[in-house]
């Protein structure tokens, strides 16, 4: 990997941006970015883990905010998915790391006016667990 001339600081900035964008409706593979970064800079593991989690959580909260400011349409209340999210509340955002489903969960949580702080905490916990598993894989292989 010597042909890639990226400093740790540049890599961390790219990791944060990649993680943020991957949590929005844009497609992205922030797990691969984290894995590659850790292969190049294993000494930065804890910083990379926290920045990836922070970026991905900020992206998820951006989706939450977009949902929060959408008008309330009565028809959406009738969707079974909304009933499940209303039933489980912000703990459902532990699954906000899932591809496609996670973006919808964040958006719907905002639309349902779930309180932002528990949403943010559960989102961060789920995203941290996923990145921790990726980091363990990168550091042990």
Automatic annotation (TrEMBL):
PANTHER family: ALKALINE PHOSPHATASE LIKE PROTEIN, INNER MEMBRANE PROTEIN YQAA. This is DedA family protein. Keywords: Membrane, Transmembrane, Transmembrane helix. The chain crosses the membrane at residues 48-71, 92-112. It comes from Azonexus hydrophilus.
């Amino acid at each position: 990997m010597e042909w890639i001339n990226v400093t740790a600081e540049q890599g961390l900035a790219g990791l944060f941006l990649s993680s943020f964008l991957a949590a929005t409706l844009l497609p992205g593979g922030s797990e691969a970015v984290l894995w590659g970064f850790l292969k190049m800079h294993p000494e930065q593991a804890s910083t990379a883990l926290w920045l990836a989690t922070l970026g991905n959580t900020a992206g998820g909260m951006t989706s939450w905010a977009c949902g929060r400011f959408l008008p309330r349409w009565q028809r959406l209340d009738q969707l079974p998915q909304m009933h499940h999210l209303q039933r489980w509340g912000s703990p459902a955002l532990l699954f906000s790391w899932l591809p496609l489903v996670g973006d919808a969960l964040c958006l719907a949580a905002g639309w349902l006016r779930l309180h932002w702080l528990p949403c943010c905490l559960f989102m961060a916990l789920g995203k941290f667990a996923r990145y921790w598993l990726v980091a363990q894989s990168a550091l042990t292989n």
